[in-house]
Amino acid sequence: MLMHVPLSELGETWIDAGLAGDSFRAAIYLDRAAVRERVSAALPELHSELQTEGFGEVFLDVRAVADLPPRTRVQSSAMMSGRPAALASLLDVRV
């Protein structure tokens, strides 16, 4: 699931997350380096909480918005312009 979440403290935030069985993965894309550092520092605690909640495998990563994969970048641009209906194969959420 790809989510765009413009947060007041974090700025433009994209979260690409998925579940499969007892595995959880999330890549968090942030536009500012200082924010990426702050969120990266919080990942170990989130990782532990998710494992405590029963996830056997947890993958969490923080990346720059510039590192969005090309396909995701096209999808995210469509979401930003208000055209997510054209992306039938993507479950998207704009919060």
Q: Into which percentage range does the β-strand content fall? A: 35-45%
> Main sheet?
5 strands, mixed
Q: Output the structural class.
A: alpha/beta
Order of helices and strands: EEEHEHE
Gyration radius, in Å:
14 Å
How many helices does DSSP assign? 2
Proportion of residues in helical segments:
25-40%
Low-confidence stretches: 85-95
- How do the strands line up in the largest sheet? 4-3-2-1-5
How far apart are the first and last residues' alpha carbons, in Å?
Answer: 13 Å
* Structural shape: globular
Averaged pLDDT:
83
- Strands, count: 5
Polypeptide structure, described:
The structure is a single chain. The protein has 95 residues and is of the alpha/beta class. Helix content is 33%, strand content 37%. It is built from two helices and five strands. Strands 4-3-2-1-5 form a five-stranded mixed β-sheet, sandwiched between helices. A hairpin with a 2-residue loop joins strand 2 and strand 3. The radius of gyration is 14 Å and the shape is globular. The model is unreliable at 85-95 (pLDDT under 50).
Main attributes of the structure:
2 helices; alpha/beta; 33% helix; five-stranded mixed sheet; disordered C terminus; 95 residues; 5 strands; 37% strand; single chain; globular
